[in-house]
Every structure is written in C-alpha cells, then in structure tokens.
Design goal:
Layout (H helix, E strand, L loop, with lengths): L1 E4 L5 E4 L4 E5 L4 E5 L4 E4 L3 H21 L41
Antiparallel strand pairs: 1-2, 3-4, 4-5
C-alpha cells in the first residue's frame, strides 16, 4: 500500500496494483480499475516514485525469504494433495479439459 494525501489533507492508503491510470491536469487524479477516482495533492512524479518504491520493497522482502528446496514431484505445499483427507486422487477420477476459445471482438 502507498500512502497519499487528499485535497483536505486526509491521508489514505491505496493498493497501487489497482490503479488503472493517473491524470495530472490540473490536479493529480488516480483512476482505479473499478472506476473510482481519487484526487491527491502529490504530483504525478511523486505518485510514480511511491509506486516504484513500494514494488522495490516487495521484491526486496521476497528476496530475503529463506529458499526452501522442493523435491521433484512435490507441490509448493500451499494446497493439500488431492489424495489427502479422503478426497479421491486425481488419478482416481476422470479429468476433462476445457478448450480455450478466442475473445469476442
């Protein structure tokens, strides 16, 4: 999250990944992916610098995490195996692939 300042000097935090575009004429306006708009006192360059600092901090934090070697054939351990807890394993059931289709233009 980056912290920005509204025109009434109230600060708020916003997720920079949800910013669609930034306008700077005459005030700096953030347009979010959901259509919400926020007018802030920071300049366009300041907002971009804050976003770059945020992303650099995320990458730095990820780099500092200990590396855990994975054994071949094992997942990341985030989702339990399909065979655990009485759930049928993937080999026990028939899996169907859903073909991709092009977008309508």
């Amino acid at each position: 999250m980056i912290v920005l300042t509204r025109l009434n000097d109230a600060q708020f935090a916003i997720n920079p990944d949800l910013i669609e575009r930034i306008h700077s004429n005459p005030d700096t306006t953030l347009v979010m992916v959901d259509g919400a708009k926020y007018i802030v006192t920071e300049s366009l360059d300041e907002v971009i610098a804050l976003i770059a600092q945020f992303r650099a901090r995320v990458i730095s934090m990820a780099r500092d995490l200990p590396q855990v070697p994975l054994r071949p054939g094992t997942g990341l351990g985030l989702v339990p195996d399909a065979g655990a807890g009485g759930t049928p394993a993937a080999s026990d059931s028939i899996t169907k692939t859903v073909p991709l289709r092009p977008r309508n233009k």
